[in-house]
Amino acid sequence: MTESSLFSTAAMSAILANAGLLGMETYAGLTERWHTQLRLAELVFLAVFTAEITLRALSHLDCPKQFFREPWNIFDAAVILCAFLPGLGDNTTLLRMLRLLRILRAARFLPQMRIIMTALVKSAGGAASFLAVGLLVLYVYAMVGWMWFADDDPTHYGSIGRAALTLFILMTLDGLGEAVRAGLEISPWSFAYYASYVLLSSFMLVNLLIGVVINSLEQARGAEADATSSRSDDARDGGAGASRPQEAHRYTKHPATEVDPVSVRERFTKARRALDDAERLALSTLPHQSTDPRRRN
After folding, report:
1. pLDDT value at position 248?
2. DSSP symbols for 16-59
3. Angle between helices 190-198 and 124-149 (to 10 degrees)
4. How many other C-beta atoms are found inside a 10 Å radius of the C-beta of residue 53?
5. Are 56 and 67 in contact (CB under 8 A)?
6. pTM score, whole prediction
7. Calpha distance 43→40 (Å, rounded)
8. Alpha helix stretches (DSSP H) within 159-205
9. What DSSP state is assigned to residue 242?
């Protein structure tokens, strides 16, 4: 039931309706006028989401480990269970943030969005390495900019912090022309400074980050394809693939074969004719016995 399209559609509809409810609460007039109704609707959605995650957990009752092996189940359970923590209702901001996280559960029912979110998680390690390299490049160029331009342009390069902020904005190529013109008035070597910085930060490092994300996206697609194939195999086996491995092994080892009665009858007929021919040949080699099959006895 939990894997049916009707169940997924109902859960997705509840998530979208909950998102609309959160949007309605941003209007002060509606909140004051329909405060009781909005609170009641929130409790209804909480009950629906609790029932959904409970049914999903019960569907893995024969093998509880399978439920926790899927990250989306853990995420859903954490988001729903946090709503029952004591004292959480007193913190309105935290409660709204948790309610906002329910919208992210929509990715569970949208395969493409699920792939993208999985790719973002997988690219976290590569993105951290990219961030470390980017900070190193930014710090080195900020120090060089402070040494070259601090006296003539203290507004942008008066300290390491201001220089780093200026270069961080230049990473987006915003205001690059004005910065280059101002730098040329100070030193002709400023062109090489800005050109090398733009090549490193805006082109090489950004393309490196894109490559990390694309690689993670391909891995996420492969993982999603494997998960879909596994679910299809379990559905073909009647859902017994993970919970009853011995039974699945027995069926795999001894597959059922279909028998065609006509084919079997033809084989028996051919075998009978072959035996008759062999018997006649054997009797023909014995001259003192009759070769008539009717007088053999």
Report:
1. 43
2. HHHHHHHHHTT-HHHHHHSHHHHHHHHHHHHHHHHHHHHHHHHT
3. 170
4. 19
5. yes
6. 0.49
7. 5
8. 160-170, 176-186, 190-198
9. T
> Model confidence over 184-203: pLDDT tens digits?
888 888 888 988 988 888 88
Cβ pair 283, 291 in contact under 8 A: yes
Rounded to the nearest 10°, the torsion over CA 247, 251, 253, 255 is 170
Asked if 122 and 131 count as a contact pair (C-beta separation under 8 A), the reply is no
What's the CA dihedral at 84, 87, 93, 96 to 10 degrees? 10
Q: What is the mean pLDDT of residues 67-88?
A: 80
Residue 183 CB burial class (10 angstroms; 0-12, 13-18, ≥19): buried
pLDDT of residue 140: 92
Give the Cα separation of 230 and 68 in Å (integer).
16
Region class of 243: left (phi > 0), else alpha (psi between -120 and 50), else beta: alpha
How far is 14 from 45, CA to CA, in rounded Å? Answer: 7
Residues 6+ apart with CB under 8 A from 103: 15, 18, 19, 22
Whether the per-residue pLDDT at 39 is higher than 80: the answer is yes
Q: Sorting pLDDT into bands at 50, 70 and 90, what band is 237?
A: low
Q: Where are the alpha helices (DSSP H) in 59-171?
A: 64-69, 71-82, 92-104, 111-122, 124-149, 154-157, 160-170
Q: Which residue has the tokens 């609170």?
A: 39
Q: Tell me the C-alpha distance between 123 and 201, whole Å.
A: 19
Contact between 95 and 89 under an 8 Å Cβ cutoff? The reply is yes
End-to-end CA distance of the chain: 70
Please report, to the nearest 10 degrees, the dihedral formed by the alpha carbons of residues 130, 218, 113, 206 taken in order: 30
pLDDT in tens, 242-270: 444 444 444 444 444 455 666 667 777 77
Instruction: Look at residues 200, 178, 205 and name the one whose alpha carbon lies nearest to residue 190.
Output: 178
